[in-house]
Amino acid sequence: MTKQRTILTEDFIQNIIIKYLASKGWSKCLTSAKLWEHGVDIKVKNNNYGRYWLIEVKGDPSIKVRSPAGSRSSSFNSAMGQIITRMHSNRSEKYWDCYNGYKYGLAFSTYFRDMVTRKTPFNILRRLNLYIFFVDEKSNVEEINWQKLKKLQKNVLLLKNNYEKKQE
Hints:
alpha/beta
């Protein structure tokens, strides 16, 4: 008997990310888009500073989808494109790490984790001030910045190299 996977919807992930950010001091001027609305899914201001998060959220594919992995890959590509088109381009190159007070994020269920961490170059996160969030069915949130992604990718590469040496 195969175990049926838990579907984490976009609304579920969005609500968990909002609670997570609120616990970290980000709850002013919150706007949260519904599935049918245009614009970024989450926009929230820091309670103490003039900084904002803009986050694009993608939920799991429905149980009817024949290839969940393919659907997740398409959703990831879509989310990346959507957040990039929402980035403010009027910032000075001199102050690129400030990003005029904006932090950007992509939020997914943990089912996306292996694919997203494999496909995303850590340097893109660093240059774009982009973060990745993963939410599990118990409402736990993992926040990944460029340093953590670099470390994860290095560990995967070491494991792969060790495995290949054992196969020789």
